[in-house]
Each structure stands twice: as structure tokens, then as C-alpha cells.
Write a structure and sequence with these properties.
The protein is mainly α and 376 residues long. It has three domains: 3-177, Serine Threonine Protein Phosphatase 5, Tetratricopeptide repeat, CATH 1.25.40.10; 209-278; 339-376, no CATH class. It has helices spanning 3-22, 32-54, 58-71, 76-88, 92-103, 110-126, 130-143, 148-160, 164-178, 183-199, 203-216, 221-233, 237-250, 259-262, 267-277, 280-289, 295-302, 310-318, 325-336, 369-375; strands spanning 341-343, 349-350, 366-368. A three-stranded antiparallel beta sheet has the order 2-1-3. Helix 3 (58-71) runs antiparallel to helix 4 and helix 11 packs antiparallel against helix 12. The radius of gyration is 29 Å and the shape is elongated. The protein starts with a helix and ends with a helix. The protein binds zinc ion.
Length: 376
């Protein structure tokens, strides 16, 4: 359990402490004696719980909190803290039952209703039950439509479920509430809608969505690639060249993605792209793609690259360009697991390119690791 979580839980326990010690004084004297006895038990369990938390023994602290809750069954604050502790221990089923029990009480005040539904949604999301999580986030939003945490969590679930339209609608709402520009993120969501239509063979719809993405942000490279696919299909070479030029102007990190699209039918366009950019990743990807083909020799003659880093040398070695069998073998093994992409937002290095970072979930922050190395 991290320090912040412990501080949060301790705060809740101190609040519980206050409730336990102060509130009995308002009861009548006839029941005072019974209270005194159970108070002692509760305070004792609380103190043990605090001691176990401070000793970093969350499992024992949890047992003590269960005891406190048993002795003070009407205290929702203690139950909310207990639910949070169960969740942090991975006991999702018990966290869910606690939060459901709070909601099953008669006349739940609105702040507690929101808090318990949000906690329940978080339980289900942690357990991977995304539909149920969404339903409870929606219950929060039905009462408080500007609940930012519920909106952001719902957006994350919609993105995970590839429900791009719903995600876009949530993001517009978040954009209005935060008064921040999320146009690039929104453009990537429109590009995902376009990609989906493309996969389903609905090219008209794909074009509309991709154009919408580019209107939203002309930095959305995924949308350029979709437009290039569509122009290739329509054999509209002049429009195709324009989109390739725009990609060269915007971000060269993605030019190599054109190789599988163009190398078979339009190698001349790839060559133009190389001549314009001299982008090494484009050249290496092209050479690697054609490694087993006879065109490889011709391409090598037309593209001559001098490696800028060890990575590039190793990639050329993996293509058999260095007469050292051992280095070639190591280079080939290294190449299969090479982390080629780097997230500018969170710093994670990954093998496959993602439009949305798999760690921080930011869109369009992927750059080539080599470029990052150069900046370093
Ligand atoms: Zn990231």
C-alpha cells in the first residue's frame, strides 16, 4: 500500500474515531453503561488498526477495521474506508458487497449515494466488469452531470471497449467542463471511427470520419493514413501524393508506416518520400520488408544509408550487411524484440506502435526511440 493511500485511510479512521468518541455523549444515561463497554472495544480495535497500518501490515489493519465496523454497524464512513481497503487488497467481491449494502440502506443522502456508486463503479472497473462499472458511473452522472472523475473513468472504459462515438461525446463534455483543448485526442477518436468503417468496407463513411478528424486537428497522422488508403483504392495519385507530402511536413516518425501500403504498387511514391525526407526509419523498414525479395538489391543501390547509431548498424547487420556471423545472429535476435517506439508523455518504450499509449493512454505521443535518443 502506498503512502498516500495510508494517509487517506488514516484520515478516514481519525474521522471514524471522532464519530465513535463524540457521538455516544448525546445518548441518554440509561444506555451509557452499555456504550462505555462497546466504546472500549471499538477504540481498542481502532488503535490496533492504526498501529498495524503504521507498521505497514494492511492485512491485519483490515481485520481490525472489520471488527470496528461490526461494533459500529451504522457508521457509513467506516464502511467506505473498509471498502477501499478491501479493494486495495484485491478483495473486489467484498468491496462490492460493502458498497452495495450502503446503497441498500433507506434514505441514503445524495453525497453518500454519489460516493458509493462511484466506489462501486471503481470496484467493477478494477475487476474488469466494464459494463457494470459504466452503469454505476452513469448513476453518478445522472445526479451530478459535471462529476469529472466519473466522466474521465467512463471515457477510459469506452476507449477500452472501442466505443469511439460514445468516447468522443464524453470527451467533448470533459473539454467543455475543463475549458481545455482536447482536439488532437478527439481527432484520434474520429480516426478510429474511420478505421472501423474502413474495416467494414464502408469507404464513404470512412472518408467522412477521416475528414472530420483532420478538421479537428491536422496533426492526426492516423487520419492521413486512412485518407491515403482511400485515395489508393480510388487510384487518385495526385491526392495521394498531397497526403504523403503533408505527412512529411507534419511528423516524419510515421513515414515508415507507408512502406506496407505503397511498396508493392507504388514504389516510386516511396522513393519520392525518401528523396524528400531521407528518413532512415523509412529506408530501413523498406529494406527489411524486401529482405527476401530480388528487388532488395536494386533498392540498396538506390538507397544508401550510413547508420547514425548502433541501433541502425545492428538493423543493417540483421539484414546480413556485416560479415560477422555471430553479430548477425545476435542482431537478428535483438531485432525481433527491439523497442522501437517511445511515449513522449510517460516515457514507456514499446515494440509495437500504438496510436494510444498502452501505459498513460494519451493519444499521438508515440515517437521513434531513435529520435528520442538523439534528443537525449
Ligand atoms: Zn504514455
Amino acid at each position: 500500500m502506498n503512502t498516500l493511500a495510508i494517509i487517506a485511510l488514516l484520515s478516514t479512521i481519525v474521522l471514524g474515531f471522532w464519530i465513535l468518541l463524540i457521538r455516544p455523549s448525546i445518548h441518554d444515561e440509561s444506555s451509557q453503561e452499555a456504550y462505555d463497554t462497546s466504546d472500549e472495544q471499538r477504540v481498542s480495535a481502532l488503535l490496533r488498526g492504526i498501529h498495524h497500518l503504521l507498521s505497514d501490515k494492511p492485512t491485519l489493519a483490515l481485520q481490525d477495521m472489520v471488527e470496528v465496523a461490526r461494533l459500529r454497524s451504522e457508521s457509513t464512513e467506516v464502511y467506505m474506508a473498509l471498502g477501499e481497503m478491501f479493494l486495495s487488497q484485491g478483495e473486489i467481491g467484498r468491496a462490492v458487497r460493502i458498497h452495495q449494502n450502503i446503497l441498500a440502506r433507506p434514505k441514503v443522502p445524495q453525497p453518500l449515494y454519489i460516493q458509493a456508486h462511484f466506489a462501486l463503479a471503481n470496484d467493477f472497473q478494477t475487476g474488469g466488469l466494464l459494463d457494470r462499472a459504466l452503469r454505476h458511473y452513469q448513476k453518478v452522472l445522472d445526479v451530478q452531470s459535471d462529476h469529472l472523475d466519473a466522466l474521465i473513468a467512463s471515457l477510459r472504459i469506452r476507449e477500452m471497449s472501442h466505443e469511439w462515438k460514445e468516447a468522443e461525446s464524453l470527451l467533448s463534455h470533459i473539454e467543455r467542463l475543463q475549458d481545455q483543448d482536447h482536439s488532437l485526442h478527439r481527432a484520434y477518436l474520429w480516426a478510429e471511427m474511420a478505421e472501423e468503417s474502413l474495416q467494414q468496407g464502408d469507404y464513404t463513411q470512412a472518408r467522412q470520419y477521416a475528414e472530420q478528424a483532420l478538421q479537428m486537428s491536422d496533426d492526426c497522422i492516423h487520419a492521413y493514413l486512412i485518407m491515403i488508403t482511400l485515395e489508393l483504392d480510388e487510384k487518385n495519385i495526385s491526392a495521394l501524393s498531397q497526403y504523403i507530402d503533408k505527412m512529411c511536413d507534419k511528423k516524419e516518425d510515421y513515414l515508415h508506416l507507408l512502406v506496407p501500403m505503397l511498396q508493392a504498387e507504388h514504389p516510386e511514391l516511396l522513393m519520392q518520400c525518401w528523396q524528400r525526407s531521407h528518413n532512415h526509419e523509412l529506408a530501413l523498414t523498406w529494406l527489411e520488408t524486401l529482405a527476401q525479395e530480388k528487388e532488395h538489391i536494386e533498392l540498396e543501390q538506390n538507397i544508401s544509408i550510413k547508420p547514425k547509431h548502433l541501433r541502425e548498424s545492428l538493423r543493417l547487420a540483421a539484414l546480413g550487411k556485416i560479415a560477422d556471423d555471430c553479430l548477425i545472429q545476435y542482431a537478428q535476435t535483438w531485432r525481433t524484440s527491439m523497442k522501437r517506439y517511445h511515449c513522449e508523455q510517460c516515457g514507456i518504450d514499446v515494440v509495437e506502435m500504438y496510436w494510444q499509449c498502452p501505459q498513460c493512454h494519451t493519444w499521438g505521443t508515440s515517437v521513434l526511440t531513435e529520435q528520442y535518443d538523439i534528443k537525449e
